[in-house]
Amino acid sequence: MNEQTIEINLTTNKKEKPNPEQLSFGKVFSDHMFTLNYSEGKGWHDPKIIPYQPISLDPAAMVFHYGQTVFEGLKAYLSEEGKALLFRPTKNVERLNQSNQRLCIPHIDEELVLAGLKKLVEIDKEWIPTAPGTSLYIRPFIIPTEAYLGVAPSQHYQFIIILSPVGSYYKEGINPVKIHVENQYVRAVSGGTGKAKTGGNYAASLKAQEVASTKGFSQVLWLDGVEKKYIEEVGSMNIFFKVNGEVITPALNESILEGVTRNSVIQLLKYWEVPVVEKKIAIEELFEWYSNGLVEEVFGTGTAAVISPVGELSWHGENIVINNGETGPIAKKLYDTLTGIQKGAEPDYFEWTVTVD
Ligand SMILES: *Cc1c(COP(=O)(O)O)cnc(C)c1O
Questions:
Q1: CATH superfamily assigned to domain 177-342
Q2: Which of 59, 221, 238, 342 is the most exposed place for a label (fewest CB within 10 A)?
Q3: How far is the CA of 234 from the centre of ligand 1 (A)?
Q4: Which atom, in ligand 1's list, is nearest to the CA of 264?
Q5: Where are the beta strands (DSSP E) in the chain?
Q6: Rounded to the nearest whole angstrom, what is the distance from the C-alpha of residue 83 to the centroid of ligand 1?
């Protein structure tokens, strides 16, 4: 399948680059996009790189109705030597197919997706910003495009990759954030779609996020959807706790998204011989550890923010302050090491980076 050649049609009208100092997250897009279509019988076909442009769809296109979508998120960085680097892109492409499987979207050729992704980043390489904390965010996604109002898997899809130069995910930078432990709304349930990167999970999360924001919290911590007892994730990040010298993270289950950053953090901690354990963690247990003075650090992990230290957690009106509201040494070391590897400034112990050009 990956013998398919990617047709390339370059823009004749390059856009102006944004001011690197004013970059936020996901508001500006590069000059080109990658597209690939699927139709029943023909499979995935017509890989193309074309000028970034709007897409035209029938109002009955299934994407507007029942949420059969999947997406990914990863980043490209520019090394000191001017090489474009991707961080573990094969993990994202594998996860895309795992999400596809859950959403009844046809399996996509991973080699072709990777080839398209690399070619696109190579063509738009000048869009990779270099200021500290900035990178080129890559958003691959699949939408169902068949015009049909029946509830069934679509027979036509479009796969698209767009690129967006981004600054730090949080306005506050790598400073600790305040987290609201969510007791009413849930993000995902066992048997649902929590394990897949699909739009509906994020639609389901907006209300809790909105309520938490009005109360001055920047993210919510999700508890399991059945008992609201066990810790799952924080916002759209995985979560880690350093308790009495040991790093603990919730064990994966059907309602937790397996982050590439989570996996990388676990590998780094093992390499540093920091004890790391994946297990079920009850929120009550965490507050107990805290009252015994055992909670040393809390941080979230995800592509967008990389490492996001948690300074404060609020559950049932009870507030706990972690590490005096400051970034802890493990979070700092993980952030520096991961972003160092991503930019090619640190030794790539695990062969995680992929050079594009
Ligand atoms: C994308 C995502 C993560 C983090 O995954 P990374 O691969 O580390 O970026 C965690 N939780 C949710 C719900 C996500 O959507």
A1: D-amino Acid Aminotransferase, subunit A, domain 2 (3.20.10.10)
A2: 59
A3: 10
A4: 8
A5: 7-8, 32-39, 43-51, 70-71, 74-78, 84-87, 135-144, 156-166, 177-181, 219-223, 231-234, 238-243, 246-249, 276-278, 295-302, 306-315, 318-321, 353-355
A6: 26
Residue reference for tokens 């055992």: 294
* Cα 241 to middle of ligand 1, angstroms: 17
User: What is the domain class of 7-166 according to CATH?
Assistant: alpha beta
Predicted local confidence at residue 4, as pLDDT? 83
| pLDDT tens per residue, range 64-101 | 999 999 999 999 999 999 999 999 999 999 999 999 99
How would you label 152-164 residue by residue, b for 16+ Cβ within 10 Å and e otherwise? eebebbbbbbbbb
Residue ranges around ligand 1 (CB below 6 Å):
73, 197, 233, 236-238, 257, 259-262, 301-303
User: Is the pLDDT assigned to residue 3 strictly greater than 70?
Assistant: no
From atom 6 of ligand 1, which residue's Cα is the shortest distance away?
259
Instruction: Kindly report the backbone phi and psi dihedral angles of residue 35, in degrees, each rounded to the nearest multiple of 5, phi listed first.
Output: -135, 150
List, for residues 128-180, the tens digit of each pLDDT value. 999 888 999 999 999 999 999 999 999 999 999 999 999 976 555 578 999 99
State which ligand 1 atom lies nearest to the alpha carbon of 260: 7
How many other C-beta atoms can be found within 10 angstroms of the C-beta atom of residue 290? 18
Ramachandran angles phi, psi of 274, nearest 5°? -90, 125
Q: How far is CA 187 from CA 86, 108, 226, 238, 333, in A?
A: 29, 27, 11, 13, 30
To test the pocket of ligand 1, the residue of 182, 236, 307, 338 to mutate (highest count of ligand atoms within 8 Å of its CB) is 236
How many residues are present in the chain? 357
Supply angle C-alpha 19, 24, 30, rounded to 5.
65
Domain boundaries, the chain: 7-166, 177-342
Question: In the structure, what pLDDT confidence band is assigned to residue 1 with cuts at 50, 70 and 90?
Answer: very low
CB 60 within 8 A of CB 22: no
Best of 237, 239, 258, 334 to mutate for ligand 1, by most ligand atoms within 8 A of CB?
237
pLDDT over 70 percentage in the chain? 98
